[in-house]
Amino acid sequence: MIDAPETDEGWFALHDFRTVDWDAWRDAPERDRETAIEDAAAFQKHREALARSDAGDSAVFSVTGSKADLLFVHFRETLDELDRIQRSFEQTEFAAYTERAHSYVSVSEVSGYVSDEYFTNPEEVDDGLKNYIEGKLTPEIPDDTYVSFYPMSKRRQPGQNWYDLDFEERADLMAGHGDVGREYAGKIKQVIASSVGLDDWEWGVTLFGDDPTDIKDIVYEMRFDEASSKYGEFGDFYVGRRFPPADFDAFLAG
Ligand code: 76R
Description:
The chain has nine helices and eleven strands. The protein is an alpha+beta fold. The strands form two sheets. Strands 1-3-2-11-5-9-8-4 form an eight-stranded antiparallel β-barrel, surrounded by four helices. The radius of gyration is 20 Å and the shape is elongated. The protein starts with 6 loop residues before the first strand and ends with a helix. Ligand 76R binds next to helix 6, strand 8, strand 9 and helix 7.
């Protein structure tokens, strides 16, 4: 049997997609809408305040297109916290005007491809690499940013089976993948979170960037890189833009 690469896990992630029932929203009395807006803003403000305490991060995005209206992203140390957040959202007055469109559960991950040494000889690893890995496991969400989320898996079929390749081949391919990725340093921040055993695909990919064209460009360029061209399979893509909780009224006013 081929050994599975070592992995390290960090924060758990919940991507919670909602649609707004716009007819019900427009029909609701002004006073009810005001309470709902205040409640939504307070709920989200409270979740985002955690970012300052290094115990997680949260953000809300306006989703463009018909797949959803809102995306709430929460990173937390435990799955239990995500479960509580999900249920406390349902207690807000605003939740009555939303339906769940989709959700995705995963856990941020680094694997042996990032650094063999980190797993085999952690004392020898320099602070730069340690900080880099720490950053991947406890991801912060940039403030004013676009987001792209999609799930992916590595292919398993005759002649194209990622899990049949030996470690060196996979490590070479991931190094090539990393080279493409690093061209986008400073433009794209990515969170790679494993969803093996947690959700329907093998990873959830979350990309953040100030310019949506950079998001399109990195995904396009990676399509030509063997790690993706030969072995990547992708689910549905969602795109949105972050807004501060105080702007819930603007979001709902259209
Ligand atoms: O961290 C590193 O620099 C090491 C190299 C690296 C690894 C091991 C790396 C770099 N990634 C790694 C792992 Mn990645 N990544 C994706 C996608 O759309 C597509 O085709 C793929 C979606 C993007 C856009 C992206 C971006 N990466 C992984 C894995 C896990 C593989 C495993 O463990 O088996 C997946 C599923 C995946 C997918 N990758 C980078 C980027 C970028 C921008 C980089 C360099 C950025 C940086 O240095 O932080």
